[in-house]
C-alpha cells in the first residue's frame, strides 16, 4: 500500500465529473446509509474470498440516478483520464453516501495494481490487511487522497460524509 502525492493535472477530469453531476449527487447528502464507524472497526475479515460486497454506491457512469447525458460524458472523461494517468481499465467511479460501509473484500476477480483517487470533505477511512496480516486503518485526507496497491488484498472503507472514488487498473 502506498499513498501518492496528488498532482493538480491528475485530477482535472475528476473535478469536472464531480462538478457537472452536482445536481444529482447533492441529493445524496441527505441519504444516510445508517452504517457506523464502530461497525467498520468491529468488522472481521471473512473466512472466504469476497471479490466485491454489495454496497449502495451510485456509479457516475451507469447509475440511473444520473441523467443519461451526464453518464455518457462521465464515461468519456473518465476513460480519457484513465489513459492519461497510466491506467489500463477504469474500475471505479462511485459516490459513497454519508455513513456508508463497504465491507471487507479483495477485488480478486480483477487482479493487478490498482490506483484509487478519492475525495472527501469529511471523515473517511480505508482499512486493509498488510503483508503481515495486520489490519491498518488509514484515514483519508480532507480533499484528495491517492492510494495504490496490488490486488487481491483485503480492504474495507467507511465514510461519514459524501466520498467520491475513482479507480483504475494500472498498466504495469
Summarize the structure in words.
It is a single chain. With 172 residues, the protein is α+β, with helices and mostly antiparallel strands. The chain has one domain (2-170): Jelly Rolls (Sandwich), CATH 2.60.120. The protein contains four helices and nine strands. It has helices at 12-20, 22-25, 37-42, 68-84, and strands at residues 2-4, 87-96, 100-105, 112-120, 124-129, 135-139, 143-151, 155-159, 163-170. The strands form two sheets. It has a five-stranded antiparallel sheet with strand order 1-7-4-9-2, with helices on one face. A four-stranded antiparallel sheet has the order 3-8-5-6. Helix 1 (12-20) runs antiparallel to helix 4 (68-84). It is globular.
What would the keywords be for this entry?
four-stranded antiparallel β-sheet, alpha+beta, 21% helix, globular, single chain
